[in-house]
Structure formats: C-alpha cells, structure tokens
Amino acid sequence: MTELDDDREGIEPETLDEDAGDPAAAFDALRRTIETQGAQIGAEMTVIRRGLEAAFDQFEKIEPQADYKPQLAQLVQALDSVAQRMHGVEQSPILRQGAQHYAAALERSGEGLVRTAVQQLERQASDLERAGRNLSAHVASARERKRQNWWLVAAFALGLIVGALVMLFLPRLLGSVPARGEMTP
Predict the structure, then answer these.
(1) Residue 152 lies in a domain
(2) pLDDT single digits (tens) 100-117
(3) Dihedral over Cα of 84, 7, 31, 46: its sign
C-alpha cells in the first residue's frame, strides 16, 4: 500500500464521490479527515504510552535495567515528525484560503473559458457568413455567364440562318436588279 492509500484510509469512499464537484464540501471533508486523523493519532499515542509503561514494568521484572534511551529518542523523533506533518497540514494554503476563495477562482476561470468560446464562435459565424456571400456571388456569376452563353449561341444561330438566307437570295436579288444604264425589256 502506498503512502497516498494510507492517507485516504480515514476518508469514506462515498464522501469522496459526493464531494468531487463541490469545492466547499471537499474542503470540509478534508478538514474532518484531518481532525479525525489527529484524534486517532492522539488515541494511538495514549495506547502506545500505556503499552510502553506496561512493557517497562514487565522488562524490569525479567531483566536487569537496560538502556532504552536510543529507542526512546527514536520514538520522540518519530512523534516530532508526526507533529510537524500535522502542523504542515494545518498550515496548508488550501485550508487557510477557504472554499469561497477557490470557488471564486474557479468561477473566474469558467467565465474566461466561456468568453473565449463565445469569441471563437462569433469568428466562425462571421467566417461562415462571408463564405456564404462568396458562394452566392459565384453562383450568381455562373448563372449570368450561362445566360450570356445562351444569348451568344442564339445570336450565332440567328446570324448563321440570316447569312445562309442572304447567300441564297442575294444573287437573285442582285441579278434581277437592272444595272445602271441598262433597261429592262
């Protein structure tokens, strides 16, 4: 088991799941856990102290007086380490700042995200509108070119027909018209 698992032993799993989205409840759960662990450490220290006293009484009966100063020094050092850790947890910025501070910070960051998303959405909407106008202009231009092409084909066909008729009937018309100075019979 890791040190993180040891730290989470005092926290009930349902408390962790319920408080996952609420910073105030999470901080309250952390405070309760620290208080519970402090009380447990105090109770364990009392039990250890009583056990040591009983053990010393038994050792005095069995063996001659031994020098326990090194072991006691280690125990005192371990207790100092635990006391320092507890003091460090009590002084953590999370507990000093309070839930309202972190809730306000989360709210500000959320507002910034929403503002950025709205600006990006507006830019994309204007890009889409511009693309729609460009597409509309291209479609109108294509329709106009199609109409112009139709008129060119119609003018070419009419010119071809008129030219063919002129070629057919012009010689007859020219042949039946008397030249200058000629008289018709």
Answers:
(1) no
(2) 777 788 888 888 888 898
(3) negative
Q: Which pTM value belongs to this model? A: 0.30
Total structural domains in the chain?
1
Whether residue 75 is contained in a domain is answered as: yes
Which phi and psi (to 5°) does residue 11 adopt? Answer: -95, 125
Q: Which residues of 114-146 are buried (b: 16+ CB within 10 A; e: fewer)?
A: eeeeeeeeeeeeeeeeeeeeeeeeeeeeeeeee
pLDDT for res 64: 57
The torsion region of residue 151 among left (phi > 0), alpha (psi -120 to 50) and beta comes to alpha
Task: Give the pair of three-digit tokens for residue 169.
Answer: 């009937």
Q: Kindly report each contact of residues 107-112 with a partner whose C-beta sits within 8 Å and lies 24 or more positions away, as own/partner.
A: none
Question: Which residue, chain included where needed, has tokens 């856990």?
Answer: 33
At residue 36, what is the residue type? T
Give residue 122's pLDDT.
92
> What residues make up the domain containing 87?
3-97
Each residue's pLDDT tens digit, 148-166:
999 999 999 999 999 999 8
Do the beta carbons of residue 99 and residue 27 sit within 8 Å? Answer: yes
Q: 62 by DSSP, 3-state: which?
A: helix
Query: 98: left (phi > 0), else alpha (psi -120 to 50), else beta?
Result: left
